[in-house]
Amino acid sequence: MSKGKKILEIKDLKRDFIMGSETVHALRGISFDVDAGEFVTIMGSSGSGKTTLLNILGCLDKPSIGNYFLDGVDVKQLSRDELAMLRNHKIGFVFQSYNLLPRTTALENVELPLLYNKEIGSAERRERAVHALEAVKLADRFDHTPSQLSGGQQQRVAIARALVNEPVMILADEATGNLDSRTSYEIMALMQELNTTQGKTIVFVTHEPDIAMFSSRTIQLRDGMVQKDSRNENIRKAKEVLAGLPVTDDY
Fold first, then answer.
1. β-sheet bridge partners, residue 42
2. Which of 38, 123, 153, 227 is most open to solvent, judged by the fewest CB atoms within 10 Å of its CB?
3. DSSP state of 233
4. Cα–Cα–Cα angle for 70, 164, 34, nearest 5°?
5. For the chain, give me the number of helices (H) and strands (E)?
6. Total domain count for the chain?
7. What is the pLDDT of residues 217-246, one digit of tens each?
């Protein structure tokens, strides 16, 4: 992927919702780009427009006004089926609640997004899922169901599932929100590794300032607008933070 290629292009994005007789202006004209290989956090308190923006970035919703290009594709022009196809091929989702199927092994959970891709046979599907789980350091947990895994391990399975389609962007929604500090830093160390060694473009939505410090850029939302868009001059290395934590017996 060529350096400087834009993965996201957002121009004057507005999203209004009709609530009874009132119109709620959730997004009030947001513009920013994200280049290939960037690690961006989007921050904002409740009511800032963070969730609405996330839904548009994830092709789950469309803007009322404005343009959104994902990897050069004009999202606003797409039908529902085309949106679903774009979502499945271009975006890897990671959620706060993991969203794993409870009675299904880690390997089968990771294979799931590939079931919708008719060009991929069962052997390649398995091979890709194995590779994705190895990438998140879970090579010894293929046959475990979510109930046999810790919260951090479940989130790693979710990240492997997000990687398996080789998307142009990983879109994470409060992906450390249900985890303790140590496990949060482990997940951020993994995200940093995916970003630096594999060049993955990551857009990470969070309300935690300490988590944002692990990214290279932070976009702060307030009242449906970009309040601040700043480069992080002192990126924290999650592995170093982990190394400085007291050792516990927890796995």
1. 205, 219
2. 123
3. S
4. 25
5. 8, 10
6. 1
7. 999 999 999 999 999 999 999 999 989 888
> Could you count the other beta carbons within 10 Å of the beta carbon of residue 49?
23
208: CATH: 3.40.50.300
109-165 tens-digit pLDDT: 999 989 878 788 999 999 999 999 999 999 999 999 999 999 999 999 999 999 999
Q: What is the largest distance, in Å, between two alpha-carbon atoms of the chain?
A: 57
Which pTM does this prediction carry?
0.91
- CA distance readout (Å), 141 to 54, 102, 106, 146: 31, 15, 7, 10
Burial class from Cβ neighbours inside 10 Å (0-12, 13-18, 19+) for residue 170 reads: buried
Contact 201, 168 (CB under 8 A): yes
Which residue has tokens 């970035």? Answer: 57
Spatial separation of the C-alpha atoms in residues 206 and 118, rounded to whole Å: 34
> Cα 150 vs. chain centroid, distance in angstroms?
20
Sheet with 202-206, strands from edge to edge, namely 91-95, 169-173, 202-206, 39-43, 217-222, 225-231
Range of the domain at 94: 36-59+77-220+230-243
* CA R_g for the chain: 18
d(CA 133, CA 202): 18
d(CA 70, CA 137): 29
- The residues near 112 (Cβ < 8 Å, ≥ 6 apart) are 101, 161
Is 8 among the domain residues? no
Sheet holding 6-19, edge to edge: 22-35, 6-19, 65-70, 73-74
